[in-house]
């Protein structure tokens, strides 16, 4: 990273940034070009390893590409503002970039766990999953993030 003064390396601070992101973007190996898709997500940390869960339809380009190549990149950011400074115009932001591997979970307990984390991330901690009529049509992805860095420009 060129601007070491903006780098965030502490996992607690990186997790805080990620927890405040509304959306993450998933970068996937495409056939001719990279494929990037925004995702709703849930997050947990196990043994200092961030794990992200997301939901999607059971078929489509994202599924096809991930089944061919599960190695991915995740980007998340929080845009605060653009402002004029004595040196010019700058953006105030916080962001993360991570690399990892995606797998689709099939165990019913882990599917529910992933959905609970997603619901929790958006403030619906107590939503009863039994009321969700579309569960049979969902696929739950799990991304284990092996490498993650953060960057911020707040001041």
Structure description:
The chain has 155 residues and is of the alpha+beta class. The chain has one domain (4-153): Roll (Pnp Oxidase, Chain A), CATH 2.30.110. 21% of the residues lie in helices and 48% in strands. The protein has 3 helices and 8 strands. The protein has helices at residues 11-20, 61-68, 108-121, and strands spanning 7-8, 24-28, 35-39, 42-46, 49-57, 71-85, 88-105, 138-153. Strands 1, 2, 3, 4, 5, 6, 7 and 8 form an 8-stranded antiparallel sheet that branches. A hairpin with a 6-residue loop joins strand 2 and strand 3 (35-39). The longest helix is centred in the C-terminal third of the chain and has 14 residues, at 108-121.
Number of strands: 8
Low confidence ranges:
none
Helix and strand element order: EHEEEEHEEHE
Distance between the termini: 19 Å
What is the name of the CATH class?
Mainly Beta
Q: Any idea what the CATH architecture is? A: Roll
Summed over residues and divided by their number, the pLDDT gives a mean of: 92
The CATH homologous superfamily is named: Electron Transport, Fmn-binding Protein, Chain A
- Count of individual domains: 1
Q: How large, in whole angstroms, is the Cα Rg?
A: 17 Å
Q: Report the total helices.
A: 3
Q: Which bin fits the share of residues in helices? A: 10-25%
Helix-strand makeup class: alpha+beta
Proportion in β-strands:
over 45%
Q: Biggest β-sheet, characterized?
A: 8 strands, antiparallel
| CATH T-level fold name | Pnp Oxidase, Chain A
The shape is globular
